[in-house]
Amino acid sequence: MIPVAQPSFGVKEKQYLKSTIDSGWISSKGEFIEKFENAFAKKYKVGYAIAVSNGTAALHLALKALGIGQGDEVIVPNFTFISSANAIIHAGAKPVFVDVEKETWNIDPQDIERKITPKTKAILPVHLYGHPANMDSVMKIARKNNLKVIEDCAESQGAKANGSFVGSIGDIGCFSFFGNKIMTTGEGGMCTTNSKKLAEKIRILRSHGMDPKKRYHHPVVGFNYRMTNMQAAVGLGQLESVDKFIAKRDKIKIAYEKNLRGLIKSQKIQTTPKATWASPVCWFYSILVAKNKRDSLMKFLEKNGIETRPFFPPITTQEAYKQYAKTKTPVSEDLAKRGINLPTYFGLKNRDVEKICKLIKEFLK
Fold it and tell me: Which of 136, 147, 284, 332 is close enough to 142 for a disulfide, judged by CB 3.0 to 4.6 Å?
């Protein structure tokens, strides 16, 4: 079976991890946490980076640090993984779902403007499947309406919008290092911000609300959202290789497009978009096929040893969120029924891509 995703580890990760075990500093204190945070902030040109336990925790901390809670509304795309909305609910706020653009598969600025109310406090754009959201438009709307912006960068680490790294544009950026992401710490996440004040708030909230200068003194109610030194050690090693990971994914994208050229030209499939202002990364190579062929194509590929994944269903189609389905999101609904993520990871071979594409061509001929 060719998996849809697979992590890649090198010598550095093992070396750094062994160092944490040998030192005994395996929990939420140790040299690698600060090293990882500093290296991450420097690489993505942002003032502060705060390592946390996972990407959902990063979103929750961002919302709480910005003071968003009961009675507030947060605008979020309907076409995304459910954690983007779950964090809003856990913060005590209300998610307001908007559609995405056909051109980028990301949050639609025009629909954002339609959904703003006196209760709106923030916009939570998601940089989906490696392509950045239209942050110029999002930030203009936010400034005009005095709204906060939290970027969900879980699937697009290293991507840029108009020359700026995702996670460095809004008030807070949130990253995930789950096992299928561009780099991984097993579980893990990061908050980024250019605000010293917000960075300090996040650091306090992630560690039980404890005052960093006065042990066991808790000025606020916080959470245990800390990353371990062991995870940070792996993360630092992964970060040192992340450019190599991204470059390989770009080569995989080129290989897919070369092998699927005929189907793309005949419009039997559509591929991942790229806006002129965007520098995306290839998290998953994604295709759109006819609605009546998507599920049967995935089953055909599975039968032939290829794992794939469907696109995310719109969040308001989930049982837990049906009460929030106030308006239609037709682009989200269309993409969800047609989209497939194909295997994309550092260890994927050219012959694997050729096999996958041969099977797709055979099915769609």
Answer: 147
